[in-house]
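ugh ok fine here u go
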Amino acid sequence: MEQSLYPLRFMPLFKDKIWGGNKIKDIIGIDYSPLERCGELWALSAIEDDETLVENGYLAECTLKEVIEMYADELVGEKCYEEFGENFPLLFKFIDANEKLSVQVHPDDKLAQSKGMNNGKTEMWYILQADKDSEIISGFNKDVTKAEVINGLRNKNISNLLNTEKTEKGDLFFIPSGRIHAIGSGVLLAEIQQSSDATYRVYDWDRKDDNGKERKLHIEEALEALDFKSVGLSAKSKYDYILNKTSELVSTPFFTTNVIHVTDNIKKDYSMLDSFVVYLCIEGTGVIHSLGHQIPLQKGQALLIPAIAEETIIQPKGLVSILETYIK
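structure:
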């Protein structure tokens, strides 16, 4: 007898980064990282050689690609399977920037594919915690030319061209492909992005790695990818905080993400949605009821609800906050 699908929870991957810290353990509460300097927790990934494994049920220890091979559109939805096949299109992370990250840019799909990659990268950041005076860099503070960027890099004053903003818990930043950006020191955030590692490093603050070497820059590629227009007065996106309701954060061709803060049971109707749904828990604990299963979920975990699920109930224990993501 064929086993039926159920909501899939995943085992995280931990990434050692030169700029990483210990907030993933101390604030998110995932205390089994083997790393002293953990910069990233990959909560759900299908990146080759960096695939998260299913944690629960009879599919435990299978990769996401293997589950898609078994269940195809039942897991991800008909349109998603037609477009991406067995390649899951999104990546979910937590990032702890104990020190500021490099200034970087991601290519769009067209440019990435012209260079042999599957796709580019558009992403969003939801700030979970920020130390006093922490900052986010997103976009240019005015329309710039390629020559201005090159001179800014040569003279090491590229910061004068960048839009830099103070940040705090609950801030939202949407980072489309082509936008120059960086996470400042003292920031803990959740990142949802296209499934891609396509990153062009523009400037790394003259930082050296553990071996005393500067990390590689990708200036030529970055100049080809950059959007040189001003980001405007602020790069922060506005949204509504509505308790026990769903509030839309980002809606793009690549993904739609909502935030749900609940203290009471909430029922979600997915009967008209031809897509998987991913819950990324960013606060608290709860139980997810879907497809006849009850799956515990806590801060720092990702849960994939198959596309065949028509209804799901979120049962919080106190306050639980979830980033809900799917493809329209």
